[in-house]
Structure formats: C-alpha cells, structure tokens
Amino acid sequence: MAGGKVYLVGAGPGDPGLITLKGIECLQKADLILYDGLVNPLILQHVSSEVERTCRVSEGCKNRRVLQQDEINQRLISAALEGKTVVRLKGGDPFIFGRGSEEAAALRNAGIEFEVVPGITAATAAAGYAGISVTHRAHASAVALITGHEDPTKPDSSLDYDVLAKFPGTLVFYMGLHKLERIVESLMQVGKAEETPAAVISRGTTPFQKTVQSTLSQLPEQVRQAGLVAPSLIVIGDCVSLRDQIAWFEQKPLFGLRIGITRAEEQSEPEIKRALELGAQPVLLPTIEIGPPADWEPVDAAIAGLDEYQWLVFTSANGVHYFLNRLWETGYDARKLARLKIATIGPSTAEALQQFHLRADLIPDQYRAEALAAALKPLVQGQKILWAGANRGREVLQTELAEVSATVDKIVVYENHDVASWEIESLELLESGEIDWIGLSSPSIARNFSRLLTDNIRQHLGSRTRLVSISPVTTQAAKDVGLQIDAEAEEYLWDGIFAAIQKHVSR
C-alpha cells in the first residue's frame, strides 16, 4: 500500500442527520472530500477540508461537468498518492447500488489503502420516512432490494420477474422511476396481483419528499399525474398499506418550505437543526462573517484588569465564546470572574455561558439592549461595567447607563464583516423565487440583506418569498431600507422566527 488513505462513506439518502458517527469522524479528518450529486451539502457545513462535487448524471448538477466513473476513480487514486486522506462521500450506502465496490476495486488495484463506512440506504430510510415498514410480522418476513436501472451495456436483463412476482415479501426498486410502467407490466404479466399495494417515494427523507400510494396497476398513472421526480424508490407489497396509519414525516408543521438562514455560517447550526426538525429545508444566506478581532491587546488588558469591574455584560453567544476562550488562552480560568456579576441579553446568550459552567445573574424579560439597560440601571449606579461584544453594535448600554453614572467599557472580542455575495446554489434559489421565507435576525443583517439583493430577487419579495423579522427594532431597520416584513417574532429569538412562520402558514 502507498500514499494516503481513502474512506468510502455512505451519507444516507437525504436527511443530513442520517449520516453515521463514523462517517462524521472521517469527514472531520479528511484533506479532500469528493461527494456525489445525491449528497445533501448541509452535511459538509462544518467541514474545513477541500470539497469537490462529482456528478455522474446531469440531473441535479446544473453548471457542472458530468464525470465518468473512471475519472472519479482516478481522482481518488491521484489524491491518495499525494498523501491525502480522502473521503468519497456517496448517497445512501456505498455498496447498495452505489458503485462503491467498483471504486474499492480500483483503489486496491492501485495499491491504495481504503475503508468502507456503510450508510443508511434508501430502502429503509425513505420507506420509513414515508410511513412504510418494509418488513412486518403480519405482512412481510422478507424484503428484496432491486435495481430499476441495470447496466445499459448488458445484453439482457438479469431480473427474473417470475421469481420477483412470487417473492414472499416486499419488493423495493431503486432508480426505477423512468421504467416504472415496464416494471409494473412485467410483474403483472407473470401473476403479481393488480390490487397489490404499491407506492413511489420521490426525494425521500428531504423536506420535498412526495409519496404516491396506489394499487400496482394504477401506480404508473398516479405517479404521472403527481409529477414525481428522481431520485425515487418504488415499494410493492402489503406493507405499503400500513402507511395510512403510521405516516409521520410529511405531517411536520413546516414541511416542504425553504427557509433562508441569514446568520453567519459559523453560528447557524442550531437554526439548521431547528428548520429540519420542523420539516423545512434550510438555505444558507449569511450576510456577515464572524472572526476574531484584529488586535487582542485591548481584550487582554481588560482581562488582566477584571478586578476593576463589578459587572460583565454579554449581548451575544459569540461574545461569550470568544471572551471566555481568550480568558483561558491568556492563562486564566473562571476564578478570574469570581468578583463579577454577569448579565446577558437573553436566554440563548445565557445558555452559551452554561457551556462554561457559568450562570447569568441578570437576564431581562425582553431580549433587546433597551430592556437590558433598564434592568441594569437600579443595580449599577456609579459602577464599572465591561461589555464584551462585536466591532459593530448600537450604543444603547453606554448612553442609558451613563444616566446613573455607570461607566461602560466595551471591548471587541469578535468582528462582524459583510459578505460580498451568496453561494451560487442559494442565489439561484433566490433568483427563481423558490425560497418561501427568509429570517432577519438583527438590524445589521436586515441592512446587509438588502445590500445583497438583485432586482430579480426583489420582484419575488412579498409574494413568492416572504420576510420575517426577529424583533420590532429589526423590522424598523428593514423598513428603513425598503424591505416589506410579512411576519414578526413575538419572542426575540430564532425560535420566535420559526413560530411566526408557523403561525402565518397555519392560517
């Protein structure tokens, strides 16, 4: 064996949460990730390595060159020979209709070390998300996984439909949407009952999953009328009838909606997870980037002089993480805060404190700077306050607390920088009006969002694409730059944004 190492990793069929723990571990240590067109890019959100998308077919790979399997094999080999740790990330499971075995053979022939990390395949995941249990004590004691798209170079089909029609269990056809009519006719011609329960699941485990349930004979016509698209899964057998009782995924409150997340990419993971929990597809539309300050010296000086202050104030979770990590890096720990009281602007910031085993002494009832200043006023007369925040922000605390002779020293523990543009995939969705809601979670984000808009995007706002604001202050900032706000959160958190969308769509 020579060079680096390749991991053939199954990503699951669509939901980014279905990748295995070992798969995540491989991604985190990779130098290069080659992922196929069926992999949800959200899986790669927090990966720092080089990433390339490989498209085997043109469908779903707009503006990308289609690669032949031999080209992909050679890319894996050449990267490994350079000494890189490579992850070949494949939809579903690498060895179930995924051509992973061909890639493994090519690696072995080239003397490249490799491992296979199995993934959840569509037969179990997509069927389960559609409410179809492919095995059941009363209905099916066996399941057959069948390709609906055989190697086109083979002279004849290797499928024996007479055997499949008599199979005592559930039949699951992969990649068979374009040959659905032929599959159904072939089964019925050799005796499969026309009334057999059947279904086709399109884009399974994603917020755009669509399931058509029918009898076997009526399935092609029902699928045509529904306009289902690939990737798809055909399920045939008595187990399909259980869907009427146990379907669950498509009933989620925000199922099928695309929701734009405008927070910095580095801090958007909680919102991505929440959108997926509610059945929505998160679309990353960051308007700012988060990074450390250009100069740590003022922060270090403030940390060294913490004994001069009575209060420490945080107005964001980022401020908590950057300040307390810097406290540790400069040789101190939580004991340095022993004489201080701590105030946060809201519960999410307080939760960030708890990760460092610290509790907030003050959280205002309303999560905005004015409420924080009002809550502090009776407690800080004549005292010194250290505010650990961003390079941008309103000066409400300094102005309001000066009225009670309190001194507020602000230190910049992280910086916000405007992004120049959005990723091409997100921009295309915006331009075509395919994003249903966009959350604006601060006045600066509202202003930056407006700055990035094109005329094509603006024409969809208020009709196909709606805006939801996190607070009245953000709503006003949006209006000041000509944006129409369609809903406003009652709780000034991203959870409030999701609740406002849910309230609007349920009317």
What does it look like?
Helix 2 (69-81) crosses helix 3, helix 11 packs parallel to helix 12 and helix 16 packs parallel to helix 18. The strands form four sheets. The chain has a five-stranded parallel sheet, sandwiched between helices. The model has no long low-confidence stretch (mean pLDDT 92). The chain has 19 helices and 20 strands. It is an alpha/beta fold and 507 residues long. Helix 9 (269-277) links the parallel strand 11 and strand 12. The chain is elongated and about 90 Å long. The protein has helices spanning 21-29, 69-81, 100-109, 122-129, 161-166, 180-189, 219-226, 243-246, 269-277, 297-304, 317-329, 347-354, 369-376, 396-401, 424-431, 443-452, 455-458, 472-480, 494-505, and strands at 5-10, 32-36, 50-54, 85-90, 113-117, 143-147, 170-174, 197-202, 210-215, 232-236, 258-261, 281-284, 288-291, 311-314, 341-344, 384-390, 407-418, 437-440, 466-469, 487-488.
Largest sheet: 5 strands, parallel
Output the structural class: alpha/beta
Q: Termini distance?
A: 63 Å
Quaternary state reads single chain
Return Rg in Å: 27 Å
Number of strands: 20
Average the pLDDT over all residues and give the rounded result: 92
Low-confidence stretches: none
> How helix-rich are the residues, as a percent range?
25-40%
Shape call:
elongated
Give the percentage of residues in beta strands.
Answer: 15-25%
Strand order of the largest sheet: 3-2-4-1-5
Number of discrete helical segments: 19
